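Section 3.1: Structural characterization of target chains.
Under the original work plan, the team committed to producing a structural model for every single-chain target entering the pipeline before any wet-lab resources were allocated. The record below documents one such target. The sequence was received from the expression subgroup and is listed exactly as submitted; it comprises 432 residues.
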Amino acid sequence: MVKKHLFRSGLAALAVFSAVCCFSVSSYAVTIGTGSQSYRISVLKAIGTADSSFDSDEPCTRAEFARLMVLSSSEKDTSGMTLTSAAANDVPASYEGSQYIKTALRKGWMRTRLGGNFAPEETVTLNEAAKATLAALGYTDEDFSTNISQERLSLFKSLDLDEGVNAVNGSDALTKRDCINIIYNLLRTNSKDSSSIYGSAIDLTLSADNELNATNVIENSLTGPILAKTTQEFRNAIPFDLNDATFYFNGQNSGTLGKMYIDSQINHQGYVILYYNDDTRTVWAYGDDGGVSTYNCVRGKVTSIVYDNDNIAAPSAVYIDSVKYSLNSSDVKFMFSLNGDIQVGDYVVLICQDVSDTNDEEQSGLTDNYAIAVIKWDKNKDGSTAGTIFSENATVYRAGSSSSSETQSGSQAAGGSAGGSTESTAGAAAAE
């Protein structure tokens, strides 16, 4: 069974930034700036709150606003519930989105009108949005004195919850774009009597420029790794319509040709490593493209493991079919260490990143191939799930692999004497 995997390190950074900013490696210099309207939409899309259709001047209904409120809160996990009773007099259980309306009413974010009607198709007003967002932050009617609506609207504006909103007066109708901005502002605003932003409840953090960072949310929503050896396994592995998906191959946006690239990788190389985010309908695939991309997969046999002199528990490099790959992730190092699950003779797939060595003045501009993730390959299994993957600061994910009971160190392989590579090593596991 494929499980969700906390996906960090350089590989995670690329996946997250790609999802939020929608960029390819080659277009890094022209990515959109944080705080822009498109960035805000991208963040809300990444966390599963709204899609690009909300970046419009169309009116936003009360039902749609209730949905935005729920999907940007800790109540988002209840969004799939099925109601057995009406949410309001005019919102039967069968009404699309009734569960969001019921949750918004239960939380006190929104209210019914006289007679118990919710008026789901009416356009939400600035006053109603101010009431909802301030209630979510912990403010109640007791926090205001005589003119509650006016004082609430003043507080709403003083907290900059109206940043990017065109509506000014409380009775003004809101567009979908207005509501996207209100929700974004809500998520980065501190709750009443708290030093934490409202969005922290769903793992959002703030960047140095006071914009939302959706990294944790996306990491927790990634599913993988999945080892697909056939095109049918690839299609079966992804739970959403591939015609609606966004594809990245080895870190680069492959656009409408995404499926073709992945099919070609499987047909020519015999495998592809997949990750996907269900909320954003995004697929990240990694394979061997001959080292053309910044990220690239290498498959082969572990022929040697190199250990540093000062720490034989943390290998510095590994040789795959006698080709050296540096290790810069603590968890990947552990996998190849004396206590890890991979030993000389095992078959693996490395997900590598080319990194310029800026510290080497004599070889300035040259790149090194760093292994940032490793998957143990069981050649005798045809299952679609990769055996093991570790990446920096990640939790362990195992599915279907049989771990080695003994890891071969340099001293074990060389009979207690230093062997294999001689560059800054205490011993390297001998090649078979």
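The chain has a mean pLDDT of 76.
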